[in-house]
Amino acid sequence: MSKSPVNAKRRLLKTVVCPHCWTSFPPEDVLWIAESPGLVGDMKLGETEHERFLPTEFDLRGFALDANGYSCREFACPHCHLHIPAASLEASTIFMSIVGAPSSGKSYYLASSTWRLRKILPKKFKVDFTDAEPEMNRRLQEYESLQFLSEEDRIVRIDKTEEQGDLYNSVQYDDQTVVYPQPFIFLASPARDHPNRSKASSLSKTVCLYDNAGESYLPTRDSDSSSSPVTRHLGRCGCLFFLFDPTQDARFRAACRVVSNDPQLDEGDRNDEFRRSPIRQEAVFSEMTRRIRATRGMYMNDRFKEPLVVVVTKLDVWQNLLPSNEFRKDPVSTAYYEGTVYSYLRVDRVKAVSERLRSLLMKRTPDFVSSAESFAEEVIYIPVSATGVSPEIDPTTGRSGFRVKNINPIWVDVPMLYALSRLTNGVVPAHSADVGTAIDRRRE
Ligand SMILES: Nc1nc2c(ncn2[C@@H]2O[C@H](COP(=O)(O)OP(=O)(O)O)[C@@H](O)[C@H]2O)c(=O)[nH]1
Ligand SMILES: [Mg+2]
Predict the structure, then answer these.
(1) Within this chain, do residues 73 and 118 fall inside the same structural domain, yes or no?
(2) Which ligand has its closest atom nearest to the C-alpha of 159?
(3) Block means of pLDDT (10 residues each) for the chain, length 444 residues?
(4) How far apart are CA 53 and CA 76, in angstroms?
(5) Are 145 and 13 in a shared domain?
(6) Domain holding 207: CATH number?
(7) For atom 13 of ligand 1, which residue has the closest CA?
(8) Taking the CB of residue 303, how many other CB atoms lie within 10 A of it?
(9) Residue 101, SS3?
């Protein structure tokens, strides 16, 4: 048996983490997916899936040959057999968990931020940010197109994320069926004109995100279990985004009503268009910390070492409660490096806004701030609006949504830029001062 040329041709990681079941395995254990139309049926995934196999023969370019002699291109996890992108074998994965109560704005936030990152990372940061496997990101692409590529006058909505359906994959282990959430995977790598292009192969990362239903984070017995481990990415995440929605907090709502007419603030929502979770967001936060402590084997006084980004959503509603307009300033600046212009995140600006927001939260929800800060070593508070406007009712359907031409997100890319700047060793640079001007001055 020849040694898998997967090793010879690619610069492989020492250990791969499956984005579906989070099992770690050495890359030589990866399964290939048969290409031949005749080779269907997999014991874990069912009769319609193509066979998974450990190859013994390869073509001249190093691709495995299936039992019918077809060259194969796709890989699968040796544990769950689900398809994993080739990039996951080469670039280490940053798992990012997005946690929040039902209706806190997770799906809108996810779609707006990835849409924006697809633009700003290549254009300003000279970082390619692409779907590692377009088919896997299909649902997210649909959300993005709905919000940003639909006809201007249309009223669009992202439907509530369900606890089952096509955002989940089922795997049969003997007599147990296990349901995993669909990962969305991006490849972030320095582009041709990035200052660190020469180190691209070691600096590239895959970024893996999930759109969980808020119900999966509730402290109930069935929301996450061994047969439905839908939030176990919490055990792996390199950055935690907790979405806090002031419009769902009783103490904020009264203050919000003074500054906004957003229909989510109405007390009597007769047609139930603007769902509000009966569960307090603090309870979702403590359930999350309980799960993280359990999966990571943390002791009571251990603190979470990765960044905790408290993303305070629906900023369009409560922006007038913030005492300054600093969030209107672009937190991205540019500088010159060896003749090329590159962008970097102004962490000083982000931290200044975080301080103001922390004071606001401290005034109204001090218990939440103290839970966050006693759980994690590093907490930053970032305000965002995924839509920039309030929802309205579509007169033809009676359902709520956003008019496409009015959608204008605020700071929606900042939490992910911050996380990437902390986790990518300079692929997305950050500075605490205006280094662009400093360099310009030196040149004068
Ligand atoms: N005003 C305002 N409303 C938002 C924003 N993002 C989401 N919403 C509203 O919040 C509701 C819940 O958002 P969604 O992303 O589905 O929440 P999820 O359950 O956490 O995924 C949506 O139906 C929108 O009406 C925002 O940025 N501003
Ligand atoms: Mg959702």
Answers:
(1) no
(2) 1
(3) 50 93 96 97 96 96 96 98 96 96 95 97 95 95 94 90 86 95 96 87 93 89 86 94 95 92 80 70 94 93 96 97 86 83 92 96 95 97 97 89 95 97 92 68 40
(4) 9
(5) no
(6) 3.40.50.300
(7) 105
(8) 12
(9) coil
Q: Which atom of ligand 1 is nearest to the CA of 412?
A: 27
Same domain, 63 and 156: no
Q: How many domains does the chain have?
A: 2
pLDDT given for residue 1 in this prediction: 40
pTM for the model: 0.93
Q: State in Å: Cα 147 to ligand 1 middle.
A: 12
Decide whether any atom of ligand 1 lies within 6 Å of the 314 Cβ. Answer: yes
For helices 281-296 and 366-375, the axis angle rounded to 10 degrees is: 10
Q: Cα(444)–Cα(435) distance, rounded to whole angstroms?
A: 14
Ligand 1 geometric centre to CA of 149 (Å): 18
Q: 439 is in which domain, residue-wise?
A: 92-443
277 lines ligand 1 (CB under 6 A): no
SS3 440: helix
Q: Which two tokens stand for residue 192?
A: 């041709």
Same domain, 180 and 65: no
53 and 169 belong to one structural domain: no
Query: Which pLDDT score is estimated for 440?
Result: 46
